Automatic annotation (TrEMBL), chain A:
This protein's encoding gene: thiG
EC number: 2.8.1.10
Biological processes, Gene Ontology terms: thiamine diphosphate biosynthetic process
Single GO term (MF): thiazole synthase activity
Name of this protein: Thiazole synthase
Automatic annotation (TrEMBL), chain B:
Database matches in InterPro entries: Beta-grasp_dom_sf, Mopterin_synth/thiamin_S_b, Thi_S, ThiS/MoaD-like
UniProt source species: Vreelandella piezotolerans
Classification via SUPFAM superfamilies: MoaD/ThiS
Protein's name according to its UniProt entry: Sulfur carrier protein ThiS
Pfam families xref list: ThiS
Superkingdom: Bacteria
Transmembrane segments: none
Length: 264, 73
């Protein structure tokens, strides 16, 4: 069997073999988190930064005991930030938390009803973070013009939503995602809205370089099984994109030859 | 020089917090049982690197954030 090859998936100068990035939220416990993430094959794993619970048992397990910085490339995110200032503070705290690690997922949200990105604040935060030496993977709307601005500023990955965070509504505007893919020189990842494996495959078939998801695995009835499904879907979608799909036709086109039919 | 029992009021993770005067950020981290844990500290919106915690005295009114990693997407 021929060994099929692919160009490396490169983020901020580092090569990865998995194009699936996963979050660590909404799992039953850390055991399930660790098992699902291992099953997904993801190498880049995102997490949130929050105040420590004072008075809590200081010996309680920590997320980073399960998702070790030695094993995974950690991607701290700014989820829960509604303005540029909070997002920048959160990234600086994350960098201190991870001993100087510069890669972050920037997301600045507009409101808690939609969690839609506030692109004005996102652009402001990106400017400050890039000047401060961060490698910024940026969650944004599926607006190609905003995506182009973020790339021109120096963001290392553009991550349009497929649909609202946690909605599982899939990719609502594949045409915009394709426009972003076609114009971008940095990796494009669908980040938000993936509900099931076919959504992840669709993102990859559109030419995205990767997919970032969380709820679709964590909220599946069987998270481990869905983690595996997502791994395979991202691989299948990538291969389908590289293979180039057949042209669509108006009418049928038989797969078996007409010549030599016994009724010919 | 402050008397040994004098205490100062800080704001820690958004809540009022009383602490003996004359101590450092490293003392606070120890007092919280977080010594050696993977945390990050910010005082008055400035990061205090781990290496500087012991050299950072706390003052009345300081706004302190102590954060860690949690699950999120």
């Amino acid at each position: 069997m021929t060994q099929l090859t692919d160009t490396p998936f490169t983020i901020a100068g580092r090569d990865f073999s998995s194009r699936l990035l996963v979050g660590t939220g909404k799992y039953k416990d850390f055991t399930e988190t660790g098992a699902a993430i291992a099953q997904s094959g993801a190498e880049i794993v995102t997490f949130a930064v929050r105040r420590t619970n004072l008075g809590q048992d200081a010996d309680a397990p920590n997320l980073l005991d399960v998702i070790s910085p030695k094993q995974y490339t950690l991607l701290p995110n700014t989820a829960g930030c509604y303005n540029a200032k909070d997002a920048v503070r959160t990234c600086r705290l994350a960098r201190e938390l991870l001993d100087g690690h510069n890669l972050v997922k920037l997301e600045v949200l507009g409101d808690d009803h939609t969690l839609y990105p506030n692109v004005v604040e996102t652009l402001k935060a990106a400017e400050t973070l890039l000047a401060d030496g961060f490698d910024v993977m940026v969650y944004t709307s599926d607006d190609p013009i905003v995506a182009r601005e973020l790339e021109a500023m120096g963001c290392c990955a553009i991550m349009p939503l497929g649909s609202l965070i946690g909605s599982g509504h899939g990719i609502q505007n594949p045409h915009n995602v394709r426009l972003i893919v076609e114009q971008s020189s940095v990796p494009v990842l669908v980040d938000a809205g993936i509900g099931t494996a076919s959504d992840a495959a669709m993102a990859m078939e559109l030419g995205c370089d990767g997919v970032l998801l969380n709820s679709a695995i964590a909220h599946a009835r069987d998270p481990l099984r869905m983690a595996n499904a997502m791994k395979l879907a991202v691989e299948a979608g990538r291969d389908a994109f590289l293979a180039g799909r057949m042209p669509r036709r108006q009418n049928a086109d038989p797969s078996s030859p007409f010549a030599g039919r016994i009724n010919g | 020089m402050s008397t040994p029992n004098e205490s100062i009021q800080l704001t820690l993770n958004g809540e009022p917090y009383a602490m003996t005067a004359g101590l450092t950020a490293a003392d606070l981290v120890e007092q919280l049982g977080l010594g050696g844990r993977r945390i990050a500290v910010e005082i008055n919106e400035q990061i205090v690197p781990k290496s500087q915690l012991a050299a950072t005295p706390l003052a009345a009114g300081d706004q302190i954030e102590v954060v860690h990693a949690i699950g999120g997407g």
